[in-house]
Structure formats: structure tokens, C-alpha cells
Amino acid sequence: MANDFSIKIRDLGKKFNREWIFRGLNLELHQGQAYAVTGPNGSGKSTLLKIISGIAPPSSGEIEYFGNGKKINASDIYKHIVACTPYLEIIEELTLREFLDFHFQFKKISYNIAIDDLIEIMYLRNSKDKKIMDFSSGMRQRLKLGIAFYSNSEIVLLDEPTMNLDQKAIDWYHEQIKNTSKDKLLLICSNQSDEYRFSNQVIDINQFKKK
Ligand SMILES: Nc1ncnc2c1ncn2[C@@H]1O[C@H](COP(=O)(O)OP(=O)(O)OP(=O)(O)O)[C@@H](O)[C@H]1O
């Protein structure tokens, strides 16, 4: 894992049909920092996150990724990113244990923990052999977050991370952020200030809203 990872966003814009969602967005993001992207519903937060993670193309501008001073190819960026988003699909037919075995074939698990430790951390021990399709929405969200926090990736992207979480799980989220995000580049899209109260910089996407 690179320890000096950065993302340079230059003059970025996205339009759907003829409408610009945002335009002229310039940002520099660094590993070890937490950033929040805020704005009302439909302002383009999720769209920005998709562009940063390489799953949607920008309409203008560019994004460059650097690891330890070297430029990283955009086509390789998925190796360095892990995301927890509402549209992230998990394989419903697998049990929790099977799903984690599958996921961690592609991403390394971090902090020298075992998959069973992660199951404990997510407090899903009693659901190890349950199929994901039978998870409650809060269990599913803890699973997505657990994967994001404990995959060995420099960039962690969270979209509405406390969605469906009860108070115990929201407290868990904050504790996990504290335990795992110090050495990451963390970007959180959110409307709720409590979700990103620890962030170093808040970016209001509306300031890049131009016709
Ligand atoms: N594939 C698409 N085609 C057309 N329009 C789209 C597409 N994806 C998003 N949009 C539009 O782009 C705008 C921004 O959507 P986005 O989901 O990024 O907003 P958001 O800030 O994440 O909203 P929310 O807070 O509701 O999650 C919306 O008007 C949405 O309808």
C-alpha cells in the first residue's frame, strides 16, 4: 500500500443530457485526510464519487492519481479503492462467510486480522452461515462498511455511510473510522453532519453548480 497517495481533480464537470450537474471542480485530496462532500439531494455527490472511483466518465476535466510520487494509471485505480455505496451490489446467494472469502481473494484484508475477526468486529458472528439475501438492511450496511474499513486500499469512498444504522451501529461506525482511517484517504458523501464531523475538509458541491 502506498503511503503517500493523492488525487488531483482538475476542472472536472459532469453533465447528463444538456444539464451540467457540476462544473469547474478543482480539488486535491491526500492520504491521511478525511474529506466530506456535501450538498442537497440530486446535487451530484454520488456522481462525483463514481467518477473518482472510475466507474463513470467525466464530461470535462480530468483526474490524476499518484502513489508515492508516481502517477497511477486510471485503469489500475480500482486496485487502490474500496467503496461503500447504496448501489454497491453484494452477491445475495452467498452466505456471509462465503462472501467474505470471495471478496478477500481480490482485496487483501488489512491490520493482520483474519476473516473471523472481521466477522466479530462487524458483530455478525451469529450470521456467518446466513445468506446475504436474508440480512436486515442494518446488517447489510455493517457488512459493506466492514469491508470498506478493513480492505487494504488507500482510498475509502463512503456514500451515506450511516444509512439504515441504529444508534449502536452509528457509534460502531465512528469507532471504526477512528481505528482504521488515519492512514487512508477518506471521502464521505453526506447530508448529515454527524456522519462527517471528524473530517478535515468539507466540500460543498453546490459551489461548483454552474449552468
Ligand atoms: N445515469 C444518469 N442519467 C441521467 N441523470 C443522472 C444519472 N445519474 C445521476 N443523474 C442525475 O444527476 C443528478 C445528481 O445525482 P446524484 O445521485 O449524483 O446526486 P446526490 O447528490 O448523490 O443525491 P442524493 O443526496 O439524493 O443521494 C440528479 O439530478 C440525477 O437525477
Structure described in brief:
Keywords: ATP-binding, Nucleotide-binding, Transport. It contains 5 helices and 9 strands, in the order E-E-E-H-E-E-E-H-H-H-E-H-E-E. With 211 residues, it is of the alpha/beta class.
Write up what this structure looks like:
With 211 residues, the protein is of the alpha/beta class. The chain has one domain (5-208): 3-Layer(aba) Sandwich (Rossmann fold), CATH 3.40.50. The protein has 5 helices and 9 strands. The chain has helices at 45-52, 96-106, 115-121, 137-150, 167-180; strands at 5-16, 19-30, 34-38, 60-67, 70-72, 81-84, 155-159, 185-190, 201-204. The chain has a 5-stranded parallel β-sheet with strand order 6-7-8-3-9, with helices on both faces. A 4-stranded antiparallel β-sheet has the order 2-1-4-5, covered by helices on one side. The radius of gyration is 17 Å and the shape is globular. It binds adenosine-5'-triphosphate. The site of adenosine-5'-triphosphate (ATP) has 11 residues, from helix 1.
